[in-house]
Amino acid sequence: MIDLHYWPTPNGHKITIFLEETGLDYTIHPVNIGKGEQFAPDFLAIAPNNRMPAIVDRAPTDGGAPISVFESGAILLYLAHKTGRFGGATPRAHVDVLQWLMWQMGGLGPMAGQNHHFGRYAPEKIPYAIDRYVKETNRLYGVLDRRLEGREFVIGDEYTVADMAAFPWILPEAQGQDMADFPHLSRWHAAIKARPAVERAYARGREIQPQPAEMTDEQRRVLFGQSSTPAR
Prior knowledge:
Elements: E1 2-6, H1 10-22, E2 26-30, H2 41-44, E3 54-57, E4 67-70, H3 72-83, H4 91-121, H5 127-148, H6 161-166, H7 183-193, H8 196-208, H9 217-224
Parallel strand pairs: 1-2
Antiparallel strand pairs: 1-3, 3-4
Organism: Sphingomonas ginsenosidimutans
Pfam families: GST_C, GST_N
InterPro entries: Glutathione-S-Trfase_C-like (IPR010987), Glutathione-S-Trfase_C_sf (IPR036282), Glutathione_S-Trfase (IPR040079), Glutathione_S-Trfase_N (IPR004045), GST_C (IPR004046), Thioredoxin-like_sf (IPR036249)
């Protein structure tokens, strides 16, 4: 039913978590971003931003032609609408889901991504950049920690796509963070990690990429050297 164009990254994990939680039928089509497969014409037809994940729903609810969706947040909202699950059970809850999903898409994901880049992947270690993004990641962890005080999940008692979106981006060891500083976030993170659907989602990722290899110069060129004329 769902074709998932995927690589096991935080944004990719968001979608497999949702699909495993709902039991929707899906087939993974690996997109090896280190080899530049995100620039293949067939993939660009459904994901014009050269980024995975993307989906093609071959059985949309209106019974019409297949629907393609790119951008992980848009995919989560589309699937929540399709299934009637995890999008917020009431109008007020839905507003909360939208706010926190946009927070992840506009804040936690991009800032943690820059943290990863300058701390792990950049060929030159720039202290100012590393410090900048480690501190911003710390600030964002604090925002989520305060939000989770007295709440089981991001919007309250209801598990939603807001949780699914944020969870894969909490990588404290890789991001220079100490989870002991964030007790509510730590409790939430452990609970999400232990969900059977989350365990299955990450297992699917290990099937695709059993052991991430050290990044080569060619992979850096493909991933980080792009302009409006993609490197191939």
